[in-house]
Amino acid sequence: MPNTTRSAPEPEFLPKILTVLGEGYRASDLRADALAGLTVAIVALPLSMAIAIASGVEPERGLYTTIIGGFLVSALGGSRFQIGGPAGAFIVLVSACVMAIGIDGLILATFLSGFLLMAAGALRLGTYIRFIPYPVTVGFTAGIAVIIFASQIRDLFGLTLATPEPGEIVEKVHVLWAARDTVTPAAVAVALGVIAVIQGIKRWRPGAPGMLIAVALASVAVAALALPVETIGTKFGDLPRTPPAPALPVPTADALWQALPWAVSFTLLGAIESLLSAVVADGMSGARHRSNAELVAQGAANVGSALFGGFCVTGTIARTATNVRAGSRGPVSGMLHALFVLAFMLIAAPLAAYIPLAALAGVLAVVAWNMAEKEEFWHLLRASRADAMVLLVTFLLVVFRDLTEGIIVGFALGGLVFIARMSEAAEVTDAADMAISTADDDRVVIRLRGPWFFGAAARLGSVLERIADRPREFVIDLTDVPMIDSSGARSFLLLARRMARRGGILTVVGARPAVRDTLEHQGLLQQPVRFLPDLAALEQA
């Protein structure tokens, strides 16, 4: 006989690093993780600075976020391969937060978001985030891609703006268009060169670190040819060689009140982004992440990042995928990737001053292009009107209104579409269709199929009531009803009361234990109702 013994489930909040070490961690695993960590660090290095600059903060803050947040995500997280750090999806929120409440407010909001994420994990809310409809995630991701690209137009073209660049995309495009006469040809050439190198390496040498090579070549070219292109050094000065000592701005009641809405937005977006990234890693590797442990780790990482002057940390899909493809064996590679970035700060921070902003803009332009799930977007547009509506509403709200609003409205629309589809799946079959003897006109037998919940009850309740005007006995066969909610149960309660007023009786046949429990809790036993196991028992009654 096959062995049916099952191993005991692992604790829900156990970090994956302990699982990996418990399986036996060998020197060969460490070598593989070191190589994967170095590969991811090479990708994360330019991205961290580019995302920080695009978010309206100093480039070193992106490195702090990667070093502190990335290490904690891997050390404490519930995903075997998750890589944490600053993410392109946060660019719009972070830049808007900085403009609204400043750098200190951003750090405080990140700090508060960390505790909110830990609370979400402790309350096991991570289990439900995965139920976000697919059209919402595609529309959200595509909207983020558009926003990221729009945020890089100034540096891509080397524009000189007469007024500060606004965050709202329509106003942003207007301001950028007004500055079209200030295009710097050298900046355009650098950005296009970076994009071409990245795409060329991806095609001909997909294993090579295309982004780092492209940025390095652009930096050398700008320095050697003395091109009139703005660099990190000319805009921000030299990068510090070490992260700062941990500190947090002293919060006042007013500062906390101003930071809280931003913290909630960071929490919602960070939870969705990190768990989506963990799902992608699971699909690539065959592993299975612990969603609530991951949320707790993301929370700890945000608290740690804020203490060291960083900003929002989340799981990053591109870097996580790179980690899996590079042969990672577990969370050690993510921890090492953070240490490799720290080593860069200690050894080579002065070199970052030569990096052109146009080169980093080219990197983010490629990131935006890769983020936009173009084929999935097009397929969903053609799939059905309902999916297309959810997709487009989410996309347009993200681009033209607000990220959080796009997610919430998209999720609500997706839920309404699901309810409508489930309601349509519920069926009512009368006695004639079932070929059941009904010689006595005082009995009508009805079979229900599918889940009987508030959506189905609203659509089908009136049908049942019309039928119930005639018979003295009304029989409902629930054999094919897998679940029923309180609204569905109440529709039967009202039907039983109506039958009782007419001197009739309601008979329920084939109710599963869980369905019967719901009916009983709704008070159906206090009415003249018979429960029978099957239709055969009905004929014998």
From TrEMBL:
It comes from Paragemmobacter ruber. Coiled coil: none annotated. The chain crosses the membrane at residues 34-55, 62-83, 89-119, 131-153, 173-198, 210-229, 259-281, 339-369, 389-419. It is found in: Membrane. It is a multi-pass membrane protein. The keyword Transmembrane helix applies. It comes from the Bacteria. InterPro entries: SLC26A/SulP_dom (IPR011547), SLC26A/SulP_fam (IPR001902), STAS_dom (IPR002645), STAS_dom_sf (IPR036513). This is STAS domain-containing protein. Keywords: Membrane, Transmembrane, Transmembrane helix. Residues 444-541 form the STAS domain.
